[in-house]
């Protein structure tokens, strides 16, 4: 299997290259024809370039091994840079929404061009390829940066289909579709940006493990007859994985060696669960 960080690097480079090409042709056709939906789509491509660039930089930092200053590695860089991506997406979406509503209010018109149709088709095909490729890598490696990217590629396919509809509408002098589609694009970007922001923020604020994983940990402790009870389970995110601290109660008459042996075995079993990188078991004698 390809290395997690190499796979993310390749996906981000493909995203940057593809979006630069799309930005150029969208902006050229959009400004020539005056299509608000195509201009919005081109600005969306600009934000996609930024997103892919942040993915590249964030992935590079997150791939650095742990050191004296960062004992648990640099994994949170993924979430920090995905937070940057979400903020830019939110700011761009607000600007696009204002411009699109303004075009509706002022009955903005634009010139139909077959170039609009061709650009839309090229965009849909390119983004669909990037969506399939990036989604596959995101699912394999459980990477929030790639998840943000593949959702963005998916959204671009859908909104460009809307831009295509607006372009066809112009052929029949129906121009309100253009501003409407531009507004929908803006709202979609806003929604996606907020979702990514919330997910990244939660991890950066040390969100705990989900309830199902906590239950699995408790079930593992039940395999040890000498564990009297589980006093607490604390966890914090470190990049895409978690650090878990479990406090268990053991008979105080057990030897130090036996208590440590139980703790070590429990740590190794819990570490086998998904998304757990480090486990610390603390023993309370009773």
Q: Concise description?
A:
The chain has 286 residues and is mainly α.
> Strand content of the residues, in percent?
5-15%
CATH topology of the largest domain, by name, is: Alpha-lytic protease prodomain-like
The radius of gyration computed from the alpha-carbon positions, rounded to a whole number of angstroms, is: 25 Å
Number of self-contained structural domains: 2
Largest sheet: 3 strands, mixed
Total helices: the number is 8
- Which second-level CATH architecture of the largest domain applies? Up-down Bundle
Helix content: 55-70%
Widest β-sheet, arrangement of strands? 1-2-3
Mean pLDDT: 82
Report the CATH C-level class of the largest domain: Mainly Alpha
* Helix-strand sequence: HHHHHHHEEHE
Low-confidence stretches: none
**Cα-to-Cα separation, first versus last residue:** 47 Å
Look at the structure and name the CATH superfamily of the largest domain: Cation efflux protein transmembrane domain
């Amino acid at each position: 299997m390809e290395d997690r960080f190499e796979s993310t690097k390749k996906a981000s480079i493909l995203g940057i290259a593809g979006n630069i090409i799309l930005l150029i042709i969208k902006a050229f056709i959009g400004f020539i024809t005056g299509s608000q939906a195509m201009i919005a789509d081109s600005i969306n491509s600009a934000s996609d370039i930024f997103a892919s660039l942040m993915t590249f930089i964030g992935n590079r930092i997150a791939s650095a091994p742990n050191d004296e200053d960062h004992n648990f590695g640099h994994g949170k860089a993924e979430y920090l840079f995905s937070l940057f991506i979400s903020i830019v997406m939110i700011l761009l979406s607000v600007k696009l929404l204002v411009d699109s509503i303004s075009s509706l209010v002022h009955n903005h018109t634009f010139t139909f061009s077959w170039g609009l149709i061709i650009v839309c088709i090229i965009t849909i095909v390119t983004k669909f390829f990037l969506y399939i490729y990036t989604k596959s890598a995101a699912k394999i490696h459980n990477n929030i940066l790639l998840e943000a990217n593949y959702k963005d590629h998916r959204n671009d396919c859908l909104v460009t289909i809307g831009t295509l509809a607006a372009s066809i509408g112009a052929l029949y002098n129906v121009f309100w579709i253009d501003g409407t589609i531009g507004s929908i694009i803006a709202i979609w970007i806003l929604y996606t940006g907020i979702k990514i922001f919330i997910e990244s923020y939660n991890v950066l604020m040390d969100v705990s493990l989900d309830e199902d994983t906590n239950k699995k940990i408790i079930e593992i402790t039940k395999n040890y007859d000498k564990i009297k009870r589980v006093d607490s389970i604390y966890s914090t995110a470190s990049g895409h994985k978690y650090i878990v601290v479990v406090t268990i109660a053991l008979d105080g008459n057990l030897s130090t060696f036996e208590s440590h042996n139980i703790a070590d075995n429990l740590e190794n079993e819990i570490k086998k669960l998904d998304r757990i990188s480090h486990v610390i078991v603390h023993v309370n004698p009773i």
